[in-house]
Specification:
alpha/beta, EC 4.2.1.1, 6 strands, metal-binding, binds zinc ion, 6-stranded mixed β-sheet
Length: 229
């Protein structure tokens, strides 16, 4: 995409949202009131607003490599993802949290091939994706010998479940879920087949929306409401 196309894109956006309708008049005078927090991967093919066709102000989005939620660690380190989650919950009082992972995730591939990643020139990636190490162990223990493609698909989904579990380590999220003020969702964008899958907390499988049949017979580690054992 030539760089000038990005500026042209802004002009299209400007015409639609500033000249044709008054969406930003309302959003600037009344502030933002998004109902959902979406935690998504940085991948350029996985833009939540585009994928979900949401309007400005509807979803509060934090993106990072592999859509990972780190565990609750209130220390003096720089927790960008946790800060965004905190603002969405405590500041904006969102009701739904969606962890949106996707197929062919480079971040998950870096986790799947962590020895290769560790030996690379990346300075921050190895440490970041190590949050998913337990997910990797679980996939390899439960499904030893999977072909690389299938192993990666399973790991992409297991990392979503790990992030859901990590969300429950935040005390104010756990409390909100238990009091039914907050609902967690694990979504998986299958970009090879153009499908959106939803994690079923009861059966521990990802299912296509509107289609209750399991997408595949790979059972994942169940969401354990904060139990990290
Ligand atoms: Zn990704």
């Amino acid at each position: 995409m030539p760089f000038s196309n990005l500026v042209k894109g802004f002009h299209v956006f400007q015409h639609k949202y500033f000249h044709e309708n008054g969406i930003y008049q309302e959003l600037t005078s009344k502030g933002q009131h998004p109902e959902a927090l979406v935690i998504a991967c940085c991948d350029s093919r996985n833009d939540p607003a585009l994928l979900l066709q949401s309007k400005p102000g509807e979803i509060f989005v934090v993106r990072n490599v592999a859509a990972i939620v780190p565990p609750y660690q209130p220390d003096d380190h720089y927790h960008g993802t946790s800060a965004a989650i905190e603002f969405a919950i405590k500041g904006l009082k969102v009701k739904d949290i969606i962890v949106l992972g996707h197929a062919m995730c480079g971040g998950v591939q870096a986790l799947a091939e962590k020895e290769k990643t560790a030996a690379s020139h990346f300075e921050f990636l190895t440490q970041w994706i190590s949050i998913g190490e337990k997910a990797r162990e679980q996939v390899d223990q439960k499904h030893p010998g999977l072909p690389p493609d299938q192993r990666q698909r399973a790991l992409e989904k297991e990392v979503i479940v790990a992030s859901l579990n990590n969300l429950m380590t935040f005390p104010w999220i756990k409390e909100g879920v238990e009091q039914q003020r907050i609902t967690l969702h694990g979504w998986y964008f299958d970009m090879m087949n153009g499908k959106l899958l939803d994690y079923n907390f009861a059966s521990c499988v990802f299912e296509e929306f509107g289609n209750p049949a399991p997408e595949e017979a790979v059972l994942l580690h169940c969401h354990s409401h904060g139990d990290q054992s």
